[in-house]
Amino acid sequence: MVNGVLRVWVLLLIPLLGSCGKGDWQLSEARKNVVMIEVTAQTWDYRLPWNPGTVSSSRGAGFVIDGNRILTNAHVVSGARYLTVQREADPRKYPAKVLHVAHDCDLALVQVEDSEFLKGTSVLPIGEIPELESVVSVYGFPIGGDRLSVTRGVVSRIDYNSYTHSGRESHLAIQIDAAINPGNSGGPVMQADRVVGVAFQGFRGDVAQNVGYMIPTPVIRRFLKDVEDGHYDHYVDIAIRWMPLENPAMRQYYHRPNDGLGVVVTDIFSEGSADGVLQKGDVLLSIDGHSIESDGSVRLDGQPVQLEEIVERKFAGDTVDLDVWRNQALEKRKITLRPAEMFSMYENLYEEPPRYVLYGGLVFQPLTANLMAVLAGGADLRLRQKYTLFGQDQIYRETPEPVILSSVLPDRSNVYLVGLAGQVVREINGRRIRTLADVLPALGSGGDRTVIRFEGDQRPAVLKKVEVDQVMPRIMTQYGISEAHRTDLGGRRLAKGSWKKEGEGK
Amino acid sequence: MRRLWIGMFVWVFLVSLGMGEDDSRGSLVRVRASIQAYDQFRPWQKKSPFGLNGTGVVLPGGKVLATAALVANRTEVGLEKPGSAEKCAAEVEAIDYEANLALLQPTDRNFLKGFSGVLLGPALRAGDKTEVWQLERNGEMLRNQAEILSAGVGRYPSDEAGFLVYGVRVSLPKRDDSYTLPLMKDGQLAGMMMGYDRDSQEGTAIPVPMIEHFLKDAADGKYEGFPTLGVSWSPLRDPNLREEVLAPKAGGGLLLTRVNPRGTAGKAGLREGDVLLSVDGYKLDEDGNYRDPLYGPTAVGNLIRTKPTVGSPARFRISRNGKEIELNGSYDRKARDEVAIPTLQFDTAPKYLVVGGMVFQELTGTYLQEWGDKWSERAPQRLVELFTFQQEKRPNPERKVVFLSQVLPSPITLGYLQLSGLVLEKLNGREIVSLSELAKAVDGVKSGDLVFEFRDEPGKLILQAQDLPSVSEKIGKDYGLPALRRL
Q: Looking at the complex, does the CB of residue A470 fall below 8 Å from at least one CB of chain B?
């Protein structure tokens, strides 16, 4: 696990504008095209979900690619309200806008409208995965000064790693031993005038030294291809769990010879790509023609990588072909890939405003990674377990989006309810709550009283509807809340769930 | 620092002098316990031993009262006379880890001859002046002035529900044998100190009504323990909630949010959603307090746990759907004792079974606590879930939780090494509900596959039965296991 994200720090140093002339020196291609991105961003506050959030400034790097676009990290521009771009050879700061942002692979595209900006720039070509031990150069604007900085290192490791910006995703990442510090984020990693990666994360100094990570070009290419149609879709996921087939007794049990090939499928997630295609106990022997070793690796461009890498490079609707050993017979299976929406709860959210429903001082919020982050240690065990076991136990089949009574805003009308904050809502007025969208209609149903029941052995919360209507204006004024609820999911999709099959309507 | 010590000494000297003829001789004895707990992560061995030194109270008749925490997981307990170094081993005659009390009997019945013993004193109230006694190295008594700050239901170290506890303000100097100390009033025992915070100079004491209950129970040689109701409840002050559950307009009562059908309340007919109005004739208010003749408003916990004994009749008045009903039953401990996953176990060797390198254990609260203070975050989440919510997840006490705790590397566990914390459900298709049953099932298979099915990923693990005898023996030898099972 990567513990420390290379978040861009707030730097309030003012660049020394007067000191540089205008593009008349001999600059390398890289130095011509690397830009400093200064961002003023807003971060939502999940404690007070109705607030517009805190404003902060930070600095990162980016570089000019084809189509008058600048490539950078998603975490450099996430939540951006205003951003400027500046080149080393041109002291002017050009306002820019975010074209696309892909939080799952931490990449974003930025564009400057002023054509003046492009004068003197070229396009940095995108290369391949560099060789292990080969030397690369990292460009950026890390802490320690205001001007462009270049550091150098060797490629240390090419492996799957978690992308901490999203909190949920793992993709191919390349570890290098060049110093990568806050402000390097989004800068190009170059080898022989070609971009071989985008610097994006590292460890804090107290955890490890000289371990920096860059996003390799297969991930960059996939992102650029994905946005060709004008919008970014999510990564797709095969949505299975598998286990290495290394144990001799296990191999014998599955009737596999000792050839060092194959992994056994241990779980298939409902609603995932493989749902209905694969079964527990299937032995996967090859994927798109690549043999799967018993540790789950395949050879790709001569490098051993995890079998998911085959899926990683594809898009929604694409297929993978699998050789499956089932009931002592070889079967050919085709899987049509789609994103794993059911796990979107584990994804850090950046752009969309937090959703909530306010009811007589009671604040209902869907369970999200962002909410868990603010509840942190204070979350009670039932809530924490709901969160950790949500994917593993496929809780989404019953409850695609658990709803939490996240806080109770103290008011004379709810003095006895304050202790209920942090509980998982089970039903409101007899209606099962499966997503935040269920809350408002359920609150409107029933008799004179609203009865909210929670999971476990907690007492119910009971409110008189007449009273709630009376106190709402007061509470909203007192706490500075302009909207009583915000429930629109935006573009995000949740799991469909499968409770209808058991005969109960939504 | 030095001045302080001199000052302290003078003060102690004066206090002792001021008491004139010492009535404290023959009342206290040093208790030396050597402690060695089982290692829950390596269940075949014990952890490093250490010693605990406390002060026990000699009771008339020559038995000694101490806290249970002092002698938990003991290998040996010894008594030592204060004025001399004369020693004698002691047996634990009765022990209650929930109530944190232990009754010790010297193996030499004449060892405490000449000790007059201490009588139990009256129950105390907040504001009462008392003393905490400590033994000096030379056997002299150090009497520290103390004051009762509070008397109410609070947490005990190894209990989840709560008992009556005194909050005590006292300034205790650092002395040996202070792990347990008596709280005294006019030469009589008023309580046993069980916790002390040097910074705030406040401590907690087990009050005399608890001690009385414990001694009465232990007197017949068959110790049963403190009863429990087996319910979860919520205060019922919220007028909206009262209306919803049709609680009596006159007020009072608490809301039962869960009732264990095996417990005292469940067997008497109480149900989830009932409003409990009174217990044994004592009315309960909306916060779950009854009016104690001595302590005033006191949590219901004291009423149902300290006052009755196991087997004594229980009388409940409830309101169900607005109708008031009387229900009768009898107090027991089944809600606490008859459970799938025991809470805390002391002095008990953990069960385990090594199968070709796979180590299986039966889940206990003690195992989970081995993960440290943050066990609920650190321990495998499935085990935490089953333990914490066992009334929902494992209501049947017969269905123990058998889990794979670790895998010792061996030729046949290749590929299984990183696995741990996996709950076992079946072996060769047969459901497994206890470790001894697993052992029997494994022993019954002489050749062919052993298919272990787990609750979670990776689901199935396979071993070959014919490999087991030789591999198990080798593992026992390589890792120095004294035995491959304890069931």
A: no
